[in-house]
Amino acid sequence: MKLVTSSVAFILASTSAFAGGHASQEAVLANYANIAEAKYADSLATAKVLQAAVATLADKPSAENLEAAKKAWLAARVPYQQTEVFRFGNAIVDDWEGKVNAWPLDEGLIDYVDAAYGGATDENAVAVLNVIANPMFELGGTTVDATMITPALLEETLQEADGVEANVATGYHAIEFLLWGQDLNGHGAGAGARPWTDYAAGDDCTGGNCDRRAEYLIAATDLLVSDLDWMVAQWAEAGAARAELLADQNAGIVAMLTGMGSLSYGEQAGERMRLGLMLNDPEEEHDCFSDNTHNSHYYDGLGVQNVYFGAYTRIDGTVVSGPSLSNLVMAKDAALDAEMKGKLFTTMKALGAIKTAAEAGFAYDQMLERGNDAGEALVMGGVTGLIDQTKTIERVVTALELENIAFEGSDSLDNPTAVFN
After folding, report:
1. Is 344 strand, coil or helix?
2. Coil, helix or strand for 138?
């Protein structure tokens, strides 16, 4: 489990310089903001690599260029997933995040789907609209001209069309679907298998409307780059997110812990892991088209760890680090700090076990199959670790004498019977 071991060694090394000194709240918050800026900058840089790969695919469709775009998408997820810990406590991030990482999505809104997918429902009248195949369509009683597929069309007209959250037209997962296509393997091995010829010209085109599919993919990727560029600016020295964080030091520390606790508990342990296991539903995978969910879970967990230790390794190998929450807690209660560290390491070991198993061929959607005891044990190891570390985060809140912290919950954890109602 090389990644887990190396992350532990890195964290211990990067925090040791601050362990003996007093860390002020102001210094801890400034370091947190620096890490946020670095993570979003890395997300932007990798999205630009993806943008270039998509442009190449559209210009010269081939199996090799489709594979290169997929690899660029996978690489782009690594820094971005580590930013999710900035959600829940930072309003600027919360108001923006749905544009770039919303899931699950009714992919029939975007492109062709398998016949078993079904049709429009009472909940979503445009679940199979297929914008790529229809340059003109009705939406909410209005005729929409989609002759040109642009970032503005995706963002302003299609995203959450008809007020339905599952109508996700933008962000990483719309791009993922356009690169991989639907994963029709159920609990079997294998990700989506979209052919490169879905982007081919003339008679070689499969799936129809290859030019419009490429146009949609380019528009979605351009919008992702634009959105990430905006978020980098929010965490820069004069950025609004940084200013809001630093304006009230107690509120800033609350934001840090709210992000850690909410991502650990309600979001990741609950909605992304326990719920899928309860429903035995591979559609509940976070990266369901690409079978990359094991990495999403791992890097979400690593993002929580980054915040507590105040350290992040950038994609170029350099480290952003400084005074941390760990320093604040150590000054109050060294035993509690040791407990928090232990819980974080235990969680990362469990998430690392899921990652290792998936990379060895035991896909996450296979783990979710009813009766798969080994898969359930792996997933529940992560769930248990995340829940357990949240309990210690709550103790940290008390030790730091903070108030007004409420972590996100999930019916899968708090009211399981409601999941089946």
Report:
1. helix
2. strand
